Amino acid sequence: MTAGQDGRAFLVLDGLTRRFSGRPAVDGVSLSIPEGEFFTIVGPSGSGKSTLIRMLAGLERPDAGRILLRGADITAMPANRRPTCMVFQSLALFSHRSVGENIAFALKMRGVDAATRRARALELMELVRLPADYLDRPVTQCSGGERQRVALARALASDPEILFFDEPLSAIDYRLRKILEMEMKDLHARTGKTFLYITHSLEEAMVMSDRIAIMRAGRIVQIGPPREIYARPNSRFVAEFMGEVNVFAVRGGRIEGLDRPAAAQSGFLILRPEALRPLGPADHADVSFPARIETGYLLGSRSQLHLSALGRRLVAELPGAAAAELRPGQEGRWGFDLADAVVTPE
Amino acid sequence: MGARAGRAVAAVWLGVVVTLIYLPMLSVLLASLANTRYMRFPHRVWTLDAYREALFGVGQADTLRLHQTSLAIALAVVVLAVAIAVFGALAFARARWRGRGLFRTLVMLPIFFPQPVLGLALLLALTAAGITPDWRTAVFAHLVWIAPIVTLVISIRLYGYDAAQEEAAFDLGATRLQVFREVTLPALAPGIVSGALFGFLLSWSNLPLSVFTTGADTTLPEWLFSRTATNYSPLVPAVAVIATAASAVIVAAVAVIWRLAGPRRG
Ligand SMILES: Nc1ncnc2c1ncn2[C@@H]1O[C@H](COP(=O)(O)OP(=O)(O)O)[C@@H](O)[C@H]1O
Ligand SMILES: [Mg+2]
User: Fold this and answer.
1) B5 occurs within a structural domain
2) Does the first or last residue of chain A, that is N or C, have fewer Cβ atoms within 10 Å of its Cβ?
3) In this predicted complex, what is the ipTM?
4) A156 touches A191 (CB < 8 A)
């Protein structure tokens, strides 16, 4: 893997590997993350994301590989001495302590006096938008979103150089999650710290990140800015991870089912649902074929249609207005332009 | 109609159960207020003579010594059992390691042993090792049976506990010792208190293990049993009532201190 955009080596992972009973959970991951980046690792459950981030935080020992921070090898440094801090999936708030005591915990461990701790806790609460009167409230009485903010403030209190997040929003309902995603991005901008975020939701990663790495079975399979990952997935796995897509096999330089030459000898042609469109008598498309609408769903402002065509099922997505006259059972010509499709080698 | 009949049956059943549980205890109190060694209700004479004898008379030395012995054993058992149980509970409720299941089984096994058999086994072992039994060997015997129970009580507490809290504390710069003091121990505290109370009461009232392992020393239950069997007088139920009151005071004191100890709970 190459270094970050500007080549500054802030955090470097070099061949990190961790095995559990012989099976690699993280398998030779190398990355370079520049200072101040919002970097997200996305992958399905069990792909090794937590194991990777726990090694970076110092909570798990790598079996092989090195971690460098500003060029210094911190591989053997224990978590309590690393200038990094982690927000856990369960948040891991101290359940027998108040909001203020949770936030100021790192300062207490450093021997900071009570008055200073209190003042700093209040500052951090303002930063994460927690009302000041929550200071003495037991964390057990806070709502999901409030607990999230407590966990963020607690991590920031130790003034870490890097913040790690292990799917902190996975247990939060959709609406609140959207709000917290924006706040997280905003907090990243205001603190200027390096954020290394983990999620299984590519949608979440797209919203917040400067760069995204896709992880699969312990390895990074693609890395790049969100737009690039979306526009040019390098494998069927990455494409399907982003949502429903139409996949055509490419064999012997031809696209199967379409009987057309492809840009590669073998691999897959990936066609996003929004690249498919119905064709009027005068419309032209690179590839066109008769299709029958099987079912249709309204997804807010867009509609998703399932088509029978080319002896298989295809998924199409249209803006609500364009789909208004389309009904299940209708037959007609559909098509797409090859420029809207991506050919991946695997 | 059916519901009302059902409720009546439930009420009667509850009444019978409560009576069966509490009537014998009440009869100990009543027996202690008699002046005769023959149980006959109602008494012809109601008197506090037995209490006078137990607290200020010829029985005073007995009463005091019995309480001292039982208290010494119970306190030693509580301190040791809690220390063992905290680490035992941490070992088998939290960390995943090979042999965890076997460890749990081995620790829990003594609970399922009939206590007299356990007592006899321990006595035989002590004799074989050339150790003369006294109250200290009884402490050991009680521990074999009580430490597993306290471990169980404390580990129930640990199941609802997010062990990631400890990692979070470590990640926030705490040393291993600070993690234990600031996170693990406070989370365990309620379990420790209930485990300690439970262990105390189990030791305080234990007869089958003590009979075999106290040697020349005598605990309250042992004395109550032997005096009831051979040399009964109202002094026996009077000492029984005093012992019950003493343990009730200790338990209540711990409960009150725990309540007042601070707003921390959960
Ligand atoms: N402590 C552990 N002991 C044994 N296997 C583990 C342990 N932690 C993780 N694994 C295994 O490693 C793989 C990756 O797990 P994890 O890093 O938690 O993935 P993710 O966070 O992406 O869901 C999984 O197969 C998991 O079962
Ligand atoms: Mg995980």
Assistant:
1) no
2) C
3) 0.86
4) yes
